[in-house]
Design brief:
By secondary structure, this protein is of the alpha/beta class. The protein contains nine helices and eight strands. It is 42% helix and 13% strand. Strand 1, helix 1 and strand 2 form a beta-alpha-beta unit. It starts with 7 loop residues before the first strand and ends with a helix. GO terms for molecular function: dihydropteroate synthase activity; metal ion binding.
Amino acid sequence: MDKARNIQIMGIVNLTDDSYFAPSRCLGTDGMPDIGRTVGMVGKMLSEGADIIDIGACSTRPGSEPVGEEEEWRRLEPVLKAIKDSFPDAVISIDTWWASVVEKAAGLIGPFIVNDISAGEDDPGMLPAVGRLGLQYIAMHKRGTPSTMQSLCNYGNVTSEVLQYFRKFAERAEKAGIKDWILDPGVGFAKDIGQNWQLLRELEVLRTLGHRILVGVSRKSMIYRLFGIIPEESLAQTQVLHFAALERGADILRVHDVAEAARTIEAYRRLM
């Protein structure tokens, strides 16, 4: 693996009240985004080494229900303004599958990264909007919605399934005029625990597609359910999986704990 490859950290900020890792939540009890908490969290992440700040206004944990595009934007708009005012050079990604949210955000803050868990499947307008606006795009593998995808785990070989999925997605992206896209294999989405571990173990197979790979394993159920713990207790095992992902070619780590991820990357580089 190239020692000089550009490994990045994406810090997670959730404008929700139900994301599975409670400390990432920045929605007040009144249903309004907590601007002070959000700006403070973003500042801390940037100081610890985050390259990208990923902001989501709808929980996508298995079993969660979507809040809708209007509610997403109601939560996002004041936060995006506040972050841009406080950290004008910060690279922002927005976790959404709504084309309307992407278009409004682009008009408000300019270029950003679209982080779409549906790879354009949940809103037919998404890929054309991203192509038209010339935005960088993250496409994730999943099946179904957050409320149904736990029952959709019947793959013969999960790695082959994901590989074929992205080969087909590449054709869709090209038709939409999207040239700069990042691959997220969707750890934890429509996959059982064994499939999640297999996918991470065989991650290097996906590098044959020639796109950067984002891995999101931070404090997920493949860790805490396996060991009978809660997300708040899974930091150590998360870093083990981050290191394994780096060994297998991950370019971006999507994390709750930026400082710890930065140290894991430094340890990996020194061993290289």
